[in-house]
Structure formats: C-alpha cells, structure tokens
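FIELD: query
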Amino acid sequence: MIEKFFQSDNVDAIYISIIIFVSVFVLNKLNKVLFRSILKRHNKIHLKFTRSVITVLIYVVGVLAIYRQFFPEKNYMNTFITSSGIIVAVAIFAAQESLNDILSGVMLSWSRPFEVGERVQILGLKITGIVEDITVRHTIIRTFNNSKIVIPNSVMNKQMIENNSSQDSRAGNFLDVVISYESDLDKAISILEELVSSHELVLITEQTPVAVTIRDLTDNGVALRVQVWTREVGENFKTCSDLRKSMLEKFKENNIEIPYKQVEMINKAVENQMDEAN
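FIELD: result
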C-alpha cells in the first residue's frame, strides 16, 4: 500500500499540492497587504467585507485544487454529479445560518448604513459604540467601556440603527435636578448656568447654547434641566459627573435644598413611657 502511495502520479500530486498550499499562503498575504494599503486611504465598510470574501475564496479554491490532485477530474466529476443533489441539500441545511450571515453582510456592504469608525446605536439591542470591523459573518462594535461586541450580520441587518456621523461626534446629555419650592429659584438657575458655562469641556455654540429650563413642577419641588454638550461622548460622562459634584457644593453654600426622602423611626415603647410620665 505504501509503495502504491508513492507511485509517480501520487508523488507529483504531493509536490503540486505543496505548491498550491504555498500559493494560497502567498495570495492571502498579498490580499491582506493590498487591502491594508487601500484601507489606510479609504476605510470603508464594503472594502473590508470584500477583503474577507476574497480571503474565503482563496482558501476554498486552494482546498478544491489540492483535492483534485489526489482524485482525478473524471472520478471527481462523476462523484460530484451523482451526489450533488444530496450535498447541496445537506450543505444548505447545515449552513443556513452562515449563508444568512454572508448574504446579510453583502446587503450591509451594499447599502452602507454605517462605515468603519462611525458611532452607531443599535436600538433593539441597546448597544452603542464604534464600528470597528465587518467580516464575512460578523460586525464588530467597540463600546465606550472598551468591550468588543461581535454581532452576526443577519442580526445587524434586522436592527434599527441610529448612525451618529463621525463628522459630527459631539454629544449632548441632560443634567436634571430638583430643588425645593422654598429655595431661591433664580439663584439656582444662575448657579447652573455659571457652572456649565465655565467647565472646560463644555461645547458652547449657536446650536448648543447653555440654557436652564424648568422641566416640571413635581410633588417634591421644581425640576430643572440643562443640556450639556461636549465634543465627544467620553468627555460628556466626565463633564456631567464634575458638574453634579460642583452643583451639590454650590447649592449647599447658597442654602438651596435638594429634597430627598427621609425615614423616621419611632420606638413605641419609649413613646408610651414618655406619655405615662407626662
């Protein structure tokens, strides 16, 4: 059997297979180098998807070419023709999810609802982050706490996506506070305006002015709101945190009360003794 394996035809097939294997490796490297150069100039989602598709095609063609070296074309074609129906049926059933992801990736690449580097919010999944990459089967999102989320393309293709263009990365967040009805309302509004306007990270333009509004009159007090704008989302979290701290300090200095729930504990035994003594 060993002698039969090392017949001249099989030896030639081994040599050719090695050449094919090396060629696949080289072509894959060239594909990565070529697209790396292109993506430096045009970091587009359809280019990244195309790179992934070409990589898969290189490997598939390489495997088929090696297979045909050990199984002559005549036998291969006969086997393929007689069993193609079963193979196709089994392959489609087993890989329907993968095929769905691939087709969805093609649709995302063609329609381009987002580009690599853009900030998106996937409303149904409650995920917000930066699009980092797209492969044949998955879209990769980098969240603002630096977690990497890998989402199948079939899932992405069904979601409602809010795209915040990378050309306008500014972010706005509401800063809400409730003060008591007895507090000086004008003074509280003045303090909020001054704190927000003086913070170094706050973005103030004609479209993003600092304006304190009375949002509501609640059972606890007057609800105030001011929108805080920054150049980036990451800066907004820190800015709002700084402003809350400064606001508490300033309100305390100016006797502006923020109402909160208080629980009063009553000792019935002590209360009864006091009543008897009286």
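FIELD: remark
Strands lie at 119-122, 127-134, 138-143, 148-152, 161-164, 171-179, 212-217, 222-230.
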